[in-house]
Amino acid sequence: MNTLEWSDALVLGFEPMDRMHREFVALLGQAQSANDAQLPSAWSAIVDHTARLFERESQWMRKTHFAGATDHMLQHRVVLNLLRDGLAMTRRGNLPPVREMAQELATWFVKHTQSLDAALAVHLRGQAETSLRRSSA
Ligand SMILES: [Fe+2]
Ligand SMILES: [Fe+2]
């Protein structure tokens, strides 16, 4: 089984987001290689981290009036609901669909990072430069 690994292709250049994405990749890699006894807690760690990551991204979008916020937050909501369904499955001992979900999550994460998050990172980098210019003017 291929586990998700961090690579330069996932670096967006907005460090607070890159840091949380690196943690996400590490946690998902652990879940992908977890045995049956480890999977429930590994999955629970992913759900917690993902909820924090999405909340953080939402805060950045709201604070900077990001134009693509609605679609981006909708996608987060759909994914987080699925991950929570997966958590309920691990609690019932139904692990195969969660292993499948982990693979789909890895594919989704790469796509999402390189599209919606990449657009957000460009926007946030621009905002950071603007406020730096303002504070040094
Ligand atoms: Fe993200
Ligand atoms: Fe995102």
Task: Give an overview of the whole structure.
- The protein has 137 residues and is mostly helical.
- It has helices at 15-32, 39-63, 69-91, 96-136.
- The chain is elongated.
- The termini are far apart.
- The mean pLDDT is 95.
Defining traits:
137 residues, mainly alpha, Four Helix Bundle (Hemerythrin (Met), subunit A), 0% strand, binds fe (ii) ion
Structure, briefly:
The protein has four helices and no strands. The protein is an all-alpha fold. The structure holds fe (ii) ion (FE2) (2 copies).
Layout of helices and strands, plus pairs?
Layout: H1 15-32, H2 39-63, H3 69-91, H4 96-136
Helix pairs in contact: 1-2, 1-4, 2-3, 3-4
Compute the number of strand runs. 0
| Structure ligands | fe (ii) ion
What is the first-to-last residue Cα distance?
Answer: 53 Å
For the biggest sheet, the summary is: none
The fraction of residues assigned to DSSP E strands is under 5%
Rg computed from alpha carbons, rounded to a whole number of angstroms: 16 Å
Which descriptor suits the 3D outline? elongated
H and E string: HHHH
Structural class: mainly alpha
Classified in CATH, the superfamily is Hemerythrin-like
Uncertain segments of ≥5 residues (pLDDT<50)? none
Kindly report the average pLDDT value. Answer: 95
Oligomeric state of shown chains = single chain
What is the CATH topology assignment?
A: Four Helix Bundle (Hemerythrin (Met), subunit A)
CATH C-level name:
Mainly Alpha
Number of helices: 4
